[in-house]
Amino acid sequence: MEIPFVVQPRPDTGVYNAKVGIWLFLASEVMLFGALFSSYILLRVGASPGSWPHGLLNIPIGTFNTAVLITSSVTVVLSWASLKMGNFGRYRVYQSITILCALGFLGIKSYEYREKFSHYEVWLNAPITVKHGDKEVPTDRLLGHIEYNGSHPFFWNTQRLAGSAEQKDPSGKVIKAAVAPVESFKLLPDPFHYTMTSKEMAHAKKEAAGHEHSEIEIKASDVKRLSAFVPAHSTYFAVYFTLTALHALHVLFGAVVIFYIWGPGAKMWKTDPDRYINRVEISGLFWHFVDLVWIFLFPVLYLL
Amino acid sequence: MSDHSHDISKHVRVYITVFVALLVGTVVTVGLNYMHFESVPLTIGIALFVAVIKASLVACYFMHLISERKMIYAILIFTAFFFVGLMFLTLWSMHDFPLHTVTH
Which residues on A lie below 8 Å from B58 (Cβ)? Predict the structure, then answer.
């Protein structure tokens, strides 16, 4: 079957059909991310003053990842330009850089996620005195890393401290082993808390740099709440994981499409080069949109 | 389809310039953030301002919106209208608490 207007512009729209298609799709994507952004604004503006976590993400790593994504965006457009000039070899080189950048971005993002899953906030029943920068302050909320039996646990929460009994199915087979309750654990506290202003936080981090922090032994009975930096920790992390995970899915999908056109789909360059160039352009438009979303996500989630 | 090779190589120079501008924009955003302005609206304003400029560069040059057909602009005008509506919807709702029910 002959599909019309895959190369020639359609007279009434002035462009080939796939271009109208991708822009309509991107318009719907704008509304999808727009809805999530506006929810973010609502939640952020409605949060009680001083309660919104900030300064918990790794800014140098986030900046580097931004540069990785920007690089991939320029290699996409350069690969398209190479094809336009008939240079298939250079197109392939540029797009392989794009794909490597996409994988690099996802790898770095996974590393960041992993860091969050083993970074904790502890709410205590009664305040204790800790060093925040150069000051000794009483506090009942601490951030930091946990050590238990020589390892750093992931995804712990208040329920995990209490342990759980073994679970059996009706035939009496154990389907979940018992988890022993935790009596106490070690906390390596951060020298700051996000309830500080960003200036105070920067000062506290600077004061603490180079000093060895002492671990605190914390009894489970003194803990009111324990949470890793997961969506359940706070509205902020719920928003952070929703937006960045949706964005990462877009990166993954875009990379798969670009890889398909680059590899198995490249036969079309021999049979129908104009249509092939259009495919590269369309996948590129999607890729630039993904970059564009990140340009807003980065300052909003990491810096503000 | 009508682009000639030498036009394209001119485009390539533009792409490289935009690429450098985007990297500079990223460094500027992060750099300003380390200055810790007292005013929160100023901090948010600057960050979003740089982001909007970067996004416009990507849309205009990488996505070729600077020289696109009317049809594409028509789609995007509708999108922009509803997007702005979506943003203001939440902002307006901020003032919609029933009187004397919220204390902060």
Answer: 73, 288, 291-292, 295
A24 vs B contacts (CB less than 8 Å): 75
Cβ within 8 Å, pair B104-A49: yes
DSSP string covering chain A? -PPTTSSSPPTTTSS-HHHHHHHHHHHHHHHHHHHHHHHHHHHHHHSPTT-S--S-S-HHHHHHHHHHHHHHHHHHHHHHHHHHTT-HHHHHHHHHHHHHHHHHHHHHHHHHHHHHHTEEEEEEEEEEEEEETTEEEEEEEEEEEEEBTTB--SS-BHHHHH-B--EE-TTS-EEE--BPPP-EEEEEE-S--TTS-HHHHHHHHHHHTTSPPPPEEEEGGGEEEEEESSGGG-HHHHHHHHHHHHHHHHHHHHHHHHHHHHTGGGGHHHH-HHHHHHHHHHHHHHHHHHHHHHHHHHIIIII-
pLDDT by residue for chain A (304 residues), tens digit each? 788 899 999 999 999 999 999 999 999 999 999 999 999 988 888 888 888 999 999 999 999 999 999 999 999 999 999 999 999 999 999 999 999 999 999 999 999 999 999 999 999 999 998 887 777 889 999 999 999 999 999 999 999 999 999 999 999 899 988 999 999 999 999 989 999 888 888 888 888 887 777 889 999 999 999 999 999 999 999 999 999 999 999 999 999 999 999 999 999 999 999 999 999 999 999 999 999 999 999 999 998 8
Count contacts between A and B (CB, < 8 Å).
Answer: 136
B63 to A19: CB separation less than 8 angstroms, yes or no: no
Q: Using a CB–CB cutoff of 8 Å, tell me whether A21 touches chain B.
A: no
Alpha-carbon distance B86 to nearest alpha carbon in chain A (angstroms): 7
Q: ipTM value of the model?
A: 0.89
Using the Cβ of A274 and the Cβ atoms of chain B, whether some distance falls under 8 Å is answered with yes
